[in-house]
Amino acid sequence: MIFFITMIILIIICLILVWYINTYNKFQGLIIRINEVEANIDTVLRKRFDLLNKSINVIKGNINTDQEVLELIVKLRSRKISNFDLDRQLYEAINEFNYYKDNYPELSESDALLKIDTSLNESEHEIIALRKYYNDIITDYNKMVRKIPSNLVAMISKYKERTYYDGKNMNDEITNDFKL
């Protein structure tokens, strides 16, 4: 009888251990995917930064202006900021780049600027896809952190919810911008 009870307890402990290991490994897989996509986003953002940085000399070389061109990029050179903040800052710089491109016709004749513009547009598609992929992974990860029983593994391993690429978390309200 004691042997039978001991075996049942061992089987239950083994099942709990197998479940824990399986859930922990799911978390690890998601964390690896998150790190990979963050590295890919970082690469695309650095590419965009470099393109905008190159465009400064092209713009200055083709137009006569005393004002600082793409000041934001110059300021970003020495700052250490997160990918989220860098992405927002780069969008502002791209808007300024587009301002120069649209308002100075002599820039449209520059092959270097056209190549930079094409590359910026290509990188835009890349960043959109990476942002969506990142948010999909974060959704899966956050669900595991919140749901029972996987939240037990999250608490033991000290995993916390992560924010989406746009800075929102799962508690933020969903708003619909359209009306019926």
Tell me roughly what share of residues is in helical segments: over 70%
Large-scale geometry: rod-shaped
Head-to-tail CA distance between termini: 68 Å
CATH architecture label: Up-down Bundle
- Tally of discrete structural domains: 1
Q: Total number of β-strand segments?
A: 0
Following the backbone from N to C, one meets helices and strands in this order, namely HHHHH
Biggest beta-sheet profile:
none
Residue-averaged pLDDT, rounded? 88
Descriptive report:
- The structure is a single chain.
- Helices cover 73% and strands 0% of the residues.
- By secondary structure, it is an all-alpha fold.
- The chain has a single domain, classed as Up-down Bundle (de novo design (two linked rop proteins)).
- It is rod-shaped.
- The N and C termini lie far apart (68 Å).
Short structural summary:
This protein is mainly alpha-helical.
Task: Give me some keywords for this one.
180 residues; mainly alpha; de novo design (two linked rop proteins); 5 helices; rod-shaped; disordered C terminus
Layout of SSEs?
Layout: H1 2-62, H2 71-76, H3 83-103, H4 111-146, H5 150-157
